[in-house]
Amino acid sequence: MDAVTEQIAEAAPRKRRLSVTPAVEAGVLFAAVAIAIISYFVVSGERSPERLLSPPLVALLLVANLVPGVALLVLIGRRAARHRAASSTAGGEGQLHVRLVAIFSVLASVPTLLVAVIASLLFQYGVAFWVSDRPRSMIENAQALAQESYRQLLGFVDRETVAMANDVSNALNEYPPDSINFQQIFGGQVYVRSLSEAIIFTVAADGQIQAIALVNPYERDLEKEINRSALKQLDQGKQSVADAQGDRIRSLTRIPGSRNLYLYAGRASGLGGISPQTERAAQVLTDYRALVTRSRSLQLQFNIALLVLALLIVGIAVWVALQVADRLVRPVNELVGAARQVAGGDLTARVPERKSKDEIGVLAGAFNQMTNQLQGQTNALVTANAQIESRRALIEAVMSGVSAGVISIGADRVVRLMNASALALLRRSEEESLGKPLVWIAPELDALLDAPEREAVAQVTVGAEARTLAVKITSDEAGQVLTFDDITQQLLDQRRAAWSDVARRIAHEIKNPLTPIQLAAERLQRRYGKQIEGGEGVFSQLTGTIVRQVGDLRRMVDEFSSFARMPKPLFRRESLLDIARQSMFLHEVAHPAIRFELDTPDEPPSLVCDRRQMGQALTNVIKNAVEAIEARGEGQALPQGEILLSIRAEDDQRVLLIVSDNGVGLPVERDRIVEPYMTTRSRGTGLGLAIVKKIVEEHCGTIGFTDHDGGGTVVTICFDTEALERLAQQNNDAEPAEPRAPALTRSGKS
């Protein structure tokens, strides 16, 4: 399923997207920091801190900081969206998250940016108006007017009080203070002079204030109304003391002509207090000037607040976008995760069906229905496959007991079945054979499928060996079945038996006349050699040639006899070290130019064998190695000839004899070098290695040939010691080997 999805995705036309790399994110962050630093220097670079910055400039700086800030928030939201998508069961790049973040960011950023700019301009122009000259002049004039009104009213009350004191002094000279006439005059003075209250009092020796006459509609406490500090000022010679308290203007003066009489008069302003109003006007002016001083700070604080608020709104929009995307993507992710489980083979995967009947709910129901059907069909297929496998196992069990190799192929010539014998014959494993074309495994057998004959003999190369297989092909509608047997050894035995019979006949027919021929040639030499005049040298040469050729024929007949009538081996426990030394010593003496070396362990193994036949086999192998070194030629810059004979014991079950040389190496037809009369030398009989192979096989062993590193041949002879022990037990004539003196070799090993 994943592969199909990937193919569809690759086949669909891909839209070009803006690639947002970490470098872009770093660039946006750098731009935001750089613009913030530039804005700081622009703001702090103004010389007059009390002057407002240009509203368009501040709005421009606000926009310049908002744009990269919003972009940075969007990129952070995008990264968070991708992280959420990657951590979900569906994986992926979170494109839906990213799109929703982008949409919500645009919807929130554009109006927020516009509102921020408009609010900034309105606020700045409003502040610019209030800190301009016109409002300043109005506030300063109002404050001056309030102060002037206060001074005028204060002076009026003070003057009227002093004048009233003079009139009261005159009245006191005519009337006593408790008389009705004086009270009328005193009240009339208060009314005429537009005063609200008046008190004539005296101060006793103990400091108590005693009222003599008063107009006090408010019934205030005299002790609280009379200012003691004002009395002291009057005692010090001041004419009058006027001040304001609350909404009243009051004045205190001494009545002329008396030492201890004072006049207190007051007037209500009716405006809530002249002094507080004047003070408020002054405070307003002070606050206004402080506002002017802080106008730039307010301007910057307001715009910074707008910036933070705008970024907060965009951040909230991004967060809301992520939450909405999670709610939308969650059911899709559940479907994707379940689909991947199904693709992985888990057909029990289900998605929770939602109560809502929207498209997602319908899709979830359809998906669960599909998986139910797939699970049922898969269970049926598994059951059928189990039955097929049981039948296959039965067939394989039957075929495993068949010695012949069996290969079943389909109509497409792909191997469906191979029994153990076929795998062993072709040296293949089941993993590298089943499901593969036959031409990959055995091209020689694949070529037979095109031939009209249904039975044939094929030469198959297995590794470095050539095998002869008798193949039978059976065809049906489903494919073909190849049955084959390895007849390599059978053919070799037949050829060996045939050559043995031929060798026996040749030895019998040739050996009889050889002795008379040799005797006749020697007699001719003795009797007529001196009688021939002028040609005695030629006569002697001819008779000598006859004698030598008869000797060569006799040696060849002896080899034929040895190959044809190999005696039954007499198994005894022998020392391989002694046999190896004796075999090498003969060649060391005959070939001093070649370096011979014997490599054995500290405790050389013994072997149950026929000493004579084992020595013959080793002698033939070493003889072939010597001839291979001599065949390299002369006059060339060649290394010294070397022959190494190694004896190894492995796993207490196998003994190895390894002979390596640096001669000319193996011939091309290396698989036939152990066949009788197979030789690459002009004077060879081709029986040496055949005799060696026969001796080795009669000693429960195997012989192999490989190339030597750097040139030459490695001959490996392996003996099964357990099988030889069994042969020794069966040999009733087996006797312990007689002790033999160790033979010394030129290699110096003993």
UniProtKB/TrEMBL annotation:
Organism, as annotated: Sphingomonas psychrotolerans
Cellular location(s): Cell membrane
Name of protein: histidine kinase
Domain of life: Bacteria
Ranges for region Disordered: 729-750
CC annotations in GO: plasma membrane
One GO biological process term: osmosensory signaling via phosphorelay pathway
Main subcellular localisation: membrane
Domain (HAMP): residue spans on this chain: 326-379
Transmembrane segments: 23-43, 55-77, 98-131, 302-322
Enzyme class: transferase
Entry-linked SUPFAM superfamilies: ATPase domain of HSP90 chaperone/DNA topoisomerase II/histidine kinase (SSF55874), HAMP domain-like (SSF158472), Homodimeric domain of signal transducing histidine kinase (SSF47384), PYP-like sensor domain (PAS domain) (SSF55785)
